[in-house]
Amino acid sequence: MIPMPRVHRLYRIGTIAGMLAIAPVLAGAETVSGPRHGVSIFGDLKYGPDFEHFDYADPAAIKGGSMTLAGLGTYDSTNPFLLKGTPAFGAANVYDTLMVSSLDESSGSYGLLAESIEVAEDKGSVTFTLRPEAVFHDGHPVDAEDVVWSFETLMSEGHPQYRNYWTAVSGAEAIDERTVRFTFSESDNPELPVIIGQVPVMPSHFWKDREFGKTTLDPLLGGGAYRFGTIDAGRSIVYEVVDDYWGRDLPVNVGRNNFDLRYDYYRDTTVGLEALKAGDLDFRLENIARNWATAYDFPALAEGRVVREELPDESTQLTQAYVFNLRDPKFGDQRVRRALAYTFDFEWLNINLFHGSYERTMSYFQNSDMQATGIPEGRELEILEPFRDRLPEALFTEAYSLPVMDGSGNIRRELREAIQLFKAAGWEVQDGTMTDVETGEPFTLEVITAQPGTEKIALTWKKNLERLGIALDLRIIDSAQYQKRVEDFDFDVITHLWAQTDSPGNEQYDYWHSRNVDVPGSRNVAGIGDPVIDAIIPIIVRATSREEQVAATKALDRVLLWRDFTLMQYFSPSNRVAYANKFSRPEIAPRNALGLEFWWVDPDKEAALAR
Fold first, then answer.
1. What letter would DSSP give residue 293?
2. CB 549 within 8 A of CB 27
3. What DSSP state is assigned to residue 313?
């Protein structure tokens, strides 16, 4: 389970600017009767009904101060829930949700707006009782009608991903002012009670005379821990902590949301690094290994005004890969996609550009027990067996692997293998150009990106492709144009990230299912339409035990890998962060996220920094 599209949360800053922030995925509801303070699926909740705060929160955290972060490109809307426009970073922080995920368990969610949650015995519905003290920033009470209106509006006018994510939620009904019930079209989908708890609740009275589906730069009314502050269109935006926030002292909020947030926008990540050096930014998560190794020698760091750290990352890793647009026939043959893997020299890149700091991504669920390794066995094999005639035989007898080069840059052997694969797929080099034997069309690639920092990687790949007679055109475009082209699937190749967590669920439909191949804005950016994958995803979603979920996810991972839908890149086993030396953080770090929203501005450090 994941938060909704474009919800930029504070606690999981992305490895590239503009990525979607994520919360831990939760899988559904335990079979426990009666109202509860939280919900889980694969065992008891870690935190009981009388818990005071999450273990990774410090109740002594100090409120006050601010943090300045970097945004990439620009923005033209304060509404984060639309396909239209480019929303401002952080805009979803002004809204509360019914439930809050914990960051140190795989399947725990606890009430925020909801005082209690009750799952029907037949699993056909879930009922939330709202807290009587919950109010929006204008003092108007949050009631069940607001919840219903928010859900129905997002489903009808919001980003298409909402309709996909909640497709099995058949309706919402306000039972009374404080009670709302959601009904489901599926009774064997245990994740539904939890993912519907992620509905961001908006004030229906505020939108009564406004057009929700239209982009706006107005300071929209919310009810969360933050409200809109200064809005400098396209350049910066400020979110202020709400001093009289109704939910400030709830257990899920203790030690959380401690300082104002400001996002300053920069045209690329390199300029953002210079802003950190100059003291204009307070925090940076460095995703360029070359920068981390060579660009952090500046006075503020030497003088202790900036802190540089590598924080362990135990979470399921983001999957970063070159994505082939399978809607283009030239990528239709798996042998072509596999051939391209023989032209990507990760080992040389890691030595010469990344300073040996990356590891090769070998799974869509990297760094988790759901990663497919070895050969399938046990329950995973049982899941895959019915599809044996539609899968490569080697999938059942060999561990998946990617070509491994020696790091010298000499990849003649790999290029010969690539040529043979292209030839088997109907391509051959004619007059120095990789050519379709039947049509005479050349094989060309266009890579688009909004990040100049990725240019050297693409240019290194380009040199290897040229040796096969393949021309690669690298186009660096602005972030708004890039977003539009990706949403419209108007590309050959892009670098894309998929966010996975401990308990995969309904979001897998959005990532890989054939029903989303042609849905603009869907996260099936590759255009994957595979009956085997379509059949495995429901097994994950309907799993009622952790063992079943892991086995089915391994099966999905294995099929995705053996289809070579993408060209896997790399990941960092740690979070490389640099920040102004005015922040403190809890002694216990959350396992599933960076946990930045639980940091605070330390007055003593801030005073020393000012001196």
1. H
2. yes
3. -
Distance CA 224, CA 29 (A): 25
β-partners of residue 237 are 231, 263
Q: What is the mean pLDDT of residues 490-512?
A: 92
Tens-place pLDDT, residues 351-387: 999 999 999 999 999 999 999 999 999 999 999 999 9
Q: Which amino acid is at 539?
A: I
Do 15 and 105 touch, CB atoms closer than 8 A? Answer: no
Indicate if the alpha-carbon torsion angle 239, 87, 16, 363 is positive or negative: positive
3-class DSSP state of 584 = strand
- Give the β-pairing of 319-324 and 566-568: antiparallel
Per DSSP, the three-state class of 560 is helix
Q: Which tops the pLDDT comparison, 500 or 296?
A: 296
Q: How far apart are the first and last CA of the chain?
A: 46
Average pLDDT of span 146-153: 98
Q: For the chain, count helices (H), then strands (E).
A: 16, 27
| pLDDT category of residue 32 using cuts at 50, 70 and 90 | low
CB atoms within 10 A of CB 144: 20
CB 572 within 8 A of CB 15: yes
Distance CA 43, CA 29 (A): 10
pLDDT at res. 578: 97
pLDDT tens-digit map of 59-117: 999 999 999 999 988 999 999 999 999 999 999 999 999 999 999 987 789 999 999 99
User: Which residues neighbour 416 within 8 Å (Cβ) at sequence distance 6 or greater?
Assistant: none
- 447, 465, 321, 338: which is closest to 403 by C-alpha? 338
Cα distance between residue 351 and residue 519, in whole Å? 40
Across 344-466, where does the E strand assignment appear? Answer: 359-360, 427-430, 433-436, 444-449
Q: Which three-class secondary structure state does DSSP give residue 588?
A: coil
3-state helix, strand, coil in the chain (%, to 5): 30, 20, 50
Residue 495 C-beta-side C-alpha neighbours within 13 Å: 22
3-class SS of residue 36: strand
Q: What is the pLDDT of residue 106?
A: 78
Distance CA 169, CA 506 (A): 12
- Cα–Cα dist 202/370, whole Å: 36
Answer yes or no: is pLDDT of 440 > 90: yes
Q: Are 410 and 351 in contact (CB under 8 A)?
A: no
Cα–Cα distance, 41 to 30 (Å, whole number): 4
- The continuous run of DSSP H or E covering 39 comes out as strand 38-39
Domains belonging to the chain, first-starting first, are 38-277+574-610 (3.40.190.10), 319-571 (3.10.105.10)
Pick from 281, 235, 236: nearest CA to 66: 281
Mean pLDDT check: name the lowest of 436-445, 552-561, 602-611: 602-611
Note the pLDDT of residue 22: 32
Report the chain's mean pLDDT, rounded to a whole number.
Answer: 91
